[in-house]
Amino acid sequence: GLNRINMQKNLVIVESPAKAKTIEGYLGKDFIVKSSFGHVRDLPSKDISIDIEHDFKPNYVVPKDKKKLVQELKKLSDKAETVWLATDEDREGEAISWHLAEALEIPDDKIKRIVFHEITKPAILGAIEKPRHIDMDLVNAQQARRVLDRLVCYEMSPILWRKIKPSLSAGRVQSVAVRVIVEREQEIRAFDPKVSFRLIGDFINKDGKHIKAELDKKIAEWDDANALLAKTIGSSFEVSNVESKPAKKSPVAPFNTSTLQQEASRKMGYSVAQTMTLAQKLYESGKITYMRTDSVNLSDLALNDAENMIRNSYGEEYSKRRV
After folding, report:
1. Of the residues 111, 160, 243, 293, which has the fewest C-beta atoms closer than 10 A?
2. Model confidence pLDDT, tens digit, residues 151-164
3. 68-107 burial, b if ≥16 CB within 10 A, otherwise e?
4. What is the pLDDT of residue 233?
């Protein structure tokens, strides 16, 4: 009898402990939820660790500080009937799931891969209804990125140290970005600016009110601008017609990763790292949907919640549903 109780049928693995806690609360007693604390395998840092001669095969190892954790997870996964890999829904998350499957040697028929865009009870339970396989295309996209990072960094950096200065680094993204910046800077320096003049008048009406108006064309020459100015000073003007149009303001789209970072920087002065750390915490406590995304679609759950809230607080006529 004792043996049955210890046997946990379902093991769920996520990558962060905060998330594990939230999810365990939703799934109940038949599920044990554990965290992998990020990646469980990586390329060792001391050499390039990529077999360039044999199809660029990466040589992954479990880092020292992860060995104990991997052993524990392996014990649990061996005992479980089903292992649910519930890492994030981007290529990094897909890769972590694949690395877990490889490092823990989980047989294929025991693996169920699930993803959700927000950590809410309906989203988690919905994901369990629709498990899938590990998406190897996504995993390979991540591996290609990792291999490229290594090749560029390990092959290029020594050249930089020799030719330019020690301890500089080259990278898959940064080297290209530096080049773009340099090219733009050269264009800016080569640009020949043209000067033109705008005329802005400050008018006072009969009631002593100030009205500013701008001439609707620019004037190329300083002398012409000055002459026009001299001619008009002290003249009286009349308004020939006034047109007023209704303006329409649409709500902005929901954030994606980059608009979130831009607004946080503009309105709050946050760095990208700060923004992402805060977003991560909000996501893990179920307050926002997944923050690494290009999508501006909202889930039905979020739309329904917002709609009910607006109807109850402000009334039917304020609710206009958009997707």
Report:
1. 243
2. 999 899 999 999 99
3. eebeebeebbeebebbbbbbbbbbbbbbbbbbbbebbebe
4. 83
Tokens 């549903």, located at residue: 321
Angle, CA 15 vertex, CA 11 and CA 17 arms, to 5°: 85
Give the integer Cα–Cα distance in Å for 79 and 34.
14
pLDDT, tens digit, for every residue of 46-82? Answer: 889 999 999 999 999 999 999 999 999 999 999 999 9
Mean pLDDT across 21-32: 91
Q: Which of 26, 60, 154, 290 is catalytic?
A: 290
Please name the residues in contact with 253: beta carbons below 8 A apart, sequence gap of 6 or more. 259, 296
> Could you tell me if 200 and 225 are in contact, meaning their C-beta atoms sit under 8 angstroms apart?
no
For the residues of 4-69, what is the DSSP string, one character each? HHH--SEEEEES-HHHHHHHHHHH-TTEEEEE--S-S-B--SSS--EETTTTTEE--B--GGGHHH
**What is the CA angle 211-215-221, rounded to 5?**
135
